[in-house]
Design goal:
Layout (H helix, E strand, L loop, with lengths): L4 H9 L5 H6 L17 E7 L13 H5 L17 H5 L25 E4 L4 E4 L12 E8 L7 H7 L11 H8 L10 E4 L23 E3 L18 H21 L4 H23 L7 H6 L8 H15 L4 E4 L13 H25 L6 E7 L2 E2 L15 E2 L3 E7 L6 E3 L14 E2 H11 L16 H4 L9
Length: 475
């Protein structure tokens, strides 16, 4: 009886690494090279799901207090709802007749105090006491904008496409596709704490690039960080090694029949890498190897900061070992979505990530890694300057894609710098502002990649997909 080779190998492969196997299949099938000299080797991409308020974090607005309780048209400023920017940067999925988002006109005051920080004098609110100590290492981009006013914006922030448009690969997948490996024993694109839900899978997906370029979610359990990564009970190291050798021999026989089959060559290499990953991945996420001082630096000794701290410390360990792109979700899905009780919600959430993120920056800097790593910190949109009134609410802000803040730090970036601004009320990103793919283009540029040259035959990308590098924040 003839055994069909493909199902046979697939059955063997499922006991190896599952998703991790796919991540390695492209290696060897494609020779990657940067388009120009890179300034960074790796990226730690920190995403806070739900939409933090830019005004109560990194873009304080005194005018909100001065004109609190007034409607936009009663202030000395132009009514932002009448601005042409409102239509340009606001694309509702439901009809406008039933979706009143982003037009609440009664000004809601700041819910926290703020002051100038560091030698650069950058304003940061009091909810970030630890991160505020590092403003002199950070470039803030205060004029970001996007178009999706619902939480599909989480995917848009990572892919550049609105929910109503055709999906595109995520920023991490493009980085994976364009770059060679720094460590042959680890995946190039790792995800910690995400995707936050099944419907946010696009934020780590590779789509038409192929599944091998998707992000690989890791658990922070050294005993089982990857699905299907452990040897079967009772199987020795030597037995598994012999199994892999048998698979490779069968693959090589077929490779002789089909010498031009690059995907087959990639599969051969994938099995070899998957075998080595069984030792490398658990070691990389084993946080018990860290000193007590480092654990405290990330807040692992405190229940409030422990989860975010573990994920960010693991991110440092992964880039230290050569992972190219680590996407970190410090908080669960939608946590920052403060339609009500913004003050209590943001007080709690900022406390959960402030110390760990500050610890990450300090740790990277003292190890010299901030010269090689780019840290990106963002969210899917900001919050409205106006008070949300749905359901009788009087304590929160709604979604706001028209203007918000992200920040970057590390390799190739200016330090203690603010780029762009929103208007006096924090409503619109002024000037052209920066759509999310400008952020993508900037990060890829720092990695030595030209976003316009990352094209796939037969797949025409739109102009907006390419984005423009934010030159002003580059060192």
């Amino acid at each position: 009886m003839r055994i069909r080779r493909r199902p046979f190998l697939a059955d063997l492969g499922m006991g190896v690494t599952g998703m991790a196997l796919g991540a390695m299949m492209a290696e060897g099938a494609k020779g990657e090279a940067t388009h120009f000299a890179p300034q960074a080797k790796s990226v730690i991409w920190i995403f806070l799901s739900g939409g933090y308020s830019h005004m109560e974090t990194f873009d304080p607005k005194p005018a909100l207090n001065k004109y609190a309780g007034m409607t936009f048209d009663k202030t000395p400023f132009d009514n932002p709802v009448n601005s042409p920017l409102h239509r340009k940067r606001f694309r509702s999925v439901p009809s406008e007749e039933i979706n009143v988002r982003d037009v609440y006109p009664t000004i809601f005051p700041m819910q926290v105090d703020w002051r100038k920080r560091g030698a650069s004098g950058i304003e940061v609110t009091d909810w970030w006491p630890h991160l505020a100590k590092h403003v002199d290492d950070i470039s803030f981009v205060r004029n970001m904008w996007t178009t999706d006013n619902d939480h599909a914006a989480e995917n848009q922030f990572h892919t550049g496409r609105h929910k109503l448009d055709e999906s595109q690969p995520s920023i991490g997948a493009w980085a994976h596709y364009g770059l060679g490996a720094l460590n042959e024993n680890l995946p190039k694109f790792v995800v910690l704490g995400g995707p936050t839900r099944s419907d946010t899978r696009e934020s780590i997906d590779s789509l038409y690039l192929g599944p091998q370029y998707s992000g690989i979610p890791l658990a922070l359990d050294p005993k089982n960080p990857l699905p299907f990564a452990q040897r079967d009970a009772g199987q020795t190291f030597e037995q598994q090694q012999q199994e892999y050798e048998a698979i490779n021999q069968l693959n090589e026989l077929t490779a002789m029949e089909y010498p031009d089959d690059q995907s087959l060559r990639a599969r051969i290499r994938a099995y070899e890498l998957a075998f080595r990953m069984q030792a490398a991945v658990p070691e990389a996420v084993d946080l018990t190897q860290e000193t007590e001082a480092t654990s405290k630096l990330y807040g692992l000794d405190n229940d409030t900061t422990k989860v975010a701290g573990q994920r960010l410390l693991a991110a440092r360990r992964l880039v230290e070992r050569g992972v190219r792109f680590v996407q970190v979700f410090p908080s669960p899905y939608g946590s920052w979505d403060s339609h009500q009780q913004l003050k209590s919600n943001h007080t709690r959430l900022c406390a959960s990530v402030d110390l760990p993120v500050a610890g990450l920056l300090q740790d990277l800097k003292q190890r010299g890694l901030l010269d090689d790593v780019v840290v990106v910190f963002g969210t899917e949109f900001g919050r409205t300057p106006g008070l949300e009134l749905r359901g009788g609410g009087n304590t929160g802000r709604d979604h706001h894609p028209n203007g918000f803040t992200v920040w970057l730090a590390g390799a190739g970036l200016k330090k203690g710098h603010v780029h762009g601004e929103t208007d006096e009320l924090g409503y619109h990103a002024l000037g052209e502002g920066h759509y999310v793919t400008d952020l993508h283009a900037t990060v890829l540029h720092l990695l030595g990649l030209d976003n316009r040259r990352l094209e796939i035959p037969g797949r025409k990308r739109l102009e907006i997909d390419h984005g423009k590098v934010i030159d002003d924040i580059l060192a």
